[in-house]
Write a structure and sequence with these properties.
It is built from 13 helices and four strands. With 337 residues, the protein is mainly alpha-helical. The protein has a four-stranded mixed sheet.
């Protein structure tokens, strides 16, 4: 009952304003209580290591850590040089509101509407791929949940600009066919790659839906990221991280299928560079923006290597499909309910 109330009124927001909106203090209290119950239940549930409990623990080496740091530095350097770079979200927050008919906001809206069909396709494929990589897809019951989740993604048809949303994008789960976009956010995402990434983030929230269809996936991905980053990734942070990860996967698929004269490292950087902030604040529901970059690179070392090796290359226009495949996790990350 508590979880039903929480889900019915929930607004899930992206990386602009990092808060959850509830219709009343009563619902807020219920949501907090539900979160505490969920965390307590999760903590008491026996941990399983999957089909191969004797498999060795995956090593995340010092070299990997250095590559993640290097990739982060290159990403934020590319943001400064790129004429189509995304505005950092802390800078968006400091800007005055933009009217619906502001030319930059209108251009962003047109970009979002044009890319939404592609984002839907890429998100559905990314969710299935992650479920397979983390050994969830072979379970028939969970596979049916994935099918329902991807169907919700395909049903999204509308981008709604909103002056009051400012630097934020959000979805209302009881209205799952619309993504609401603040006009500042529409204007601040100046590239197709950046827009695909954020659209895909919001579509993943919709995929999860009111039934928490993707919760096991959120949990198992977070369980991989936490020891690699040393970060606490629990509760809503798990969902936000996977939404960002799907955004990266969708942007990379877009880049692979749409050749350009622009350097690949620049295009890849656009998927996450809105997190290159100066004010690196976090909250209970989100990792800080720069921690998000680090977590994403830690989860996908091929993505990190592609960017870390690409600084100042300036001439690459294509990426080998083989290098675009996310490394699957070891079998001890299998999760069985």
């Amino acid at each position: 009952m508590i979880n039903d109330l929480k889900k019915r009124f929930e607004v899930r927001r992206s990386r602009g304003l990092r808060f959850m909106l509830q219709p009343s203090s009563l619902i807020l209290s219920l949501a907090v209580l539900a979160a505490l119950v969920n965390v307590s239940s999760s903590a008491q549930r026996p941990q399983r290591n999957g089909a191969h409990p004797s498999a060795p623990r995956e090593v995340f080496s010092a070299a990997d850590q250095a590559m993640v740091l290097r990739a982060t530095q290159v990403t934020c350097s590319e943001r400064v040089r790129d004429p189509l770079s995304s505005m950092p979200i802390d800078e968006m927050q400091s800007r005055p509101s933009l009217a619906i008919d502001n030319p930059a906001a209108v251009a962003g809206l047109r970009r979002a509407e044009r890319l939404l069909p592609l984002a839907r396709k890429f998100v559905a494929a990314a969710i299935i791929k992650l479920a397979r990589d983390y050994n969830l897809y072979q379970d028939a019951a969970y596979r049916s949940r994935i099918v329902a989740a991807t169907a919700r993604v395909q049903a999204v048809r509308r981008i709604k600009p909103d002056v009051d949303a400012r630097d934020n994008a959000s979805v209302v789960l009881r209205e799952p066919h619309t993504i609401q976009f603040g006009t500042i956010f529409l204007a601040g995402l100046r590239s197709d790659e950046g827009m695909i990434s954020v659209l895909s983030h919001e579509l993943t929230h919709i995929a999860d839906g009111q039934s928490d269809s993707l919760r096991p996936l959120f949990q198992v991905v977070a369980r991989r990221a936490a020891p690699r980053t040393g970060l606490s990734i629990t509760g809503q942070r798990q969902e936000e991280l996977v939404c960002d990860l799907v955004g990266v996967m969708a942007a990379r698929e877009f880049i692979q299928s749409n050749a350009s004269w622009e350097p690949v490292v620049r295009r890849l950087s656009r998927a996450i560079e809105h997190n290159c902030v100066t004010d690196d604040a976090s909250d209970d529901d989100h990792l800080s923006p720069r921690s998000t970059i680090r977590a994403l690179f830690s989860l996908d070392l091929d993505f990190a290597a592609e960017i870390a090796a690409g600084n100042d290359i300036g001439s690459n226009t294509t990426v080998s499909p083989a290098r675009f495949k996310m490394r699957p996790p070891p079998s001890n990350f299998a999760m069985h309910d």
